[in-house]
Amino acid sequence: MGKSEELFERAVKRIPGGVNSPVRAYGAIGMAPRFIKRADGCHIYDVDGNEYVDYIDSWGPMILGHNFPQIREAVVEACADGLSFGCATEIEVEMAEFICEHLPHVEMVRMVNSGTEAVMSAIRAARGYTGRDKIIKFAGCYHGHSDALLVSAGSGVMTSGVPDSAGVPKGCTQDTMTAVYNDLNSVKTLLEQAPGQVAAVIVEPVAANMGVVPPKKGFLEGLRSLCTEHGTLLIFDEVITGFRLAFGGAAEYFGVTPDMVTFGKIIGAGMPVGAYGGRKEIMEMVSPAGPVYQAGTLSGNPIAMAAGLTQLKYLYEHQEVYKELEEKGEKLYSGIEQILKEYKKPYHVNYVSSLGSLFFAENEVVDYTSAKASDTNAFADYFLAMLKSGIHLAPSQFEAMFLSAAHTDTVIEETLSEVRDYFMK
Ligand code: PMP
């Protein structure tokens, strides 16, 4: 028995399921998760001394690779002044100014501690601003684990087969309407069913929690027009796409302007940070400026801000990173597509820049229903083979692969060679 197995045996006795977030569990695979000791660049090392090429990247934030020197140094420097004050600091102002100066659709921003909090708070602000209660989300999109959003949700809840969680009272979800991703008509119908009652449409501009599902041409633009027509706010949940597809996230990448946006882990470079922002008149509804209450003792924590702002500044000053990520994505994902074609495998690859998924599905994956048609047993077999070959993937068919600037062409070629060996059999 390895050290990961030993730790897992201990963990399941004291932590539900042995993990502090379900997406870490290898439940679908039927083994103990790898317990990680350290990571550097595009590599991650477990407690048993195994080295893997990491395609999880802490679920997105390690866009420059693990343990990026400037970020680590900024954190160490900030620590010297104390870990938390629970009071206003200069670096929070710098962070807010930096974001608002460079993202035209964000006039004001509030820092929180996770993506879940960011979305929950953005929805509250949208409801406060519009005076409406209902919201529309898409089946298979995940927006964190707040009660109102655990409806046909993606990510870990999709993997575990409980997209509508137990413990959520009906009252909390009665105003959540669910539409079909990539289907504008489904949104139009819901908006017409509840005229003047929908506060917001929230969407992952590239769905990445049912595996990666890109928006069809015109989908985001169509959402924009429908929302404008109905006086409904359009919220882009950019927890995965923000500062990743482009510095301005999906809003810049696709040229569609949301009313509000939510960010997560990337904004803290891996520290527990989230943020929500948008037009000034909406954000001025938030306390203490306005009547929508939202708070957080550790929000804008100075260490987290030091890490996050260092990463954002680096990305802004080195925007060639985005072109590189696009090229790396093309190399890896079209490479996998090519291998599938060569060995006549009926599976599909979806990708947008550095985000991608290999679906063990025979039909194209465009929404929740087509994603769910994937053969999760075939995925589990592939996952295990990849792990044995030193490639660390998310242990679920319904999660994305994340490339970072630290994944070199050589590493990508080595990965493709392992994928080829697997499908050659
Ligand atoms: N929104 C999206 C799009 C996400 O992918 C996630 C988590 N990956 C969240 C919200 C929730 O973020 P957190 O896990 O930080 O609460």
Keywords:
425 residues; alpha/beta; Aspartate Aminotransferase, domain 1; Aspartate Aminotransferase, domain 2; 2 domains; 7-stranded mixed beta sheet; 4-stranded mixed beta sheet; 15 helices; 39% helix; binds 4'-deoxy-4'-aminopyridoxal-5'-phosphate
Offer a concise description of the structure:
It is built from 15 helices and 14 strands. The protein is of the alpha/beta class and 425 residues long.
Describe the protein.
This protein has 425 residues and is α/β, with parallel strands linked by helices. It folds into two domains: 3-67 and 319-424, Aspartate Aminotransferase, domain 1; 69-317, Aspartate Aminotransferase, domain 2 (3-Layer(aba) Sandwich), CATH 3.40.640.10. The protein has 15 helices and 14 strands. Bound molecules: 4'-deoxy-4'-aminopyridoxal-5'-phosphate (PMP). 4'-deoxy-4'-aminopyridoxal-5'-phosphate binds next to helix 4.
Furnish the topology, listing elements before pairings.
Blueprint (H helix, E strand, L loop, with lengths): L2 H12 L21 E5 L2 E4 L4 E4 L14 H11 L10 H13 L5 E5 L2 H16 L3 E5 L17 H4 L10 H4 L2 E4 L4 H10 L4 E6 L15 H12 L2 E5 L11 H6 L5 E4 L10 E5 L1 H4 L18 H16 L2 H23 L5 E5 L2 E5 L8 H5 L3 H13 L2 E2 L8 E2 L6 H16 L1
Parallel strand pairs: 3-13, 5-6, 5-7, 7-8, 8-9
Antiparallel strand pairs: 1-2, 2-3, 4-10, 9-10, 11-12, 12-14
This protein binds 4'-deoxy-4'-aminopyridoxal-5'-phosphate.
Strand order of the largest sheet: 4-10-9-8-7-5-6
* Shape verdict: globular
- Percentage of residues assigned to helices: 25-40%
For this structure, the quaternary state is single chain
Q: Estimate the mean pLDDT confidence.
A: 97
The CATH architecture of the largest domain: 3-Layer(aba) Sandwich
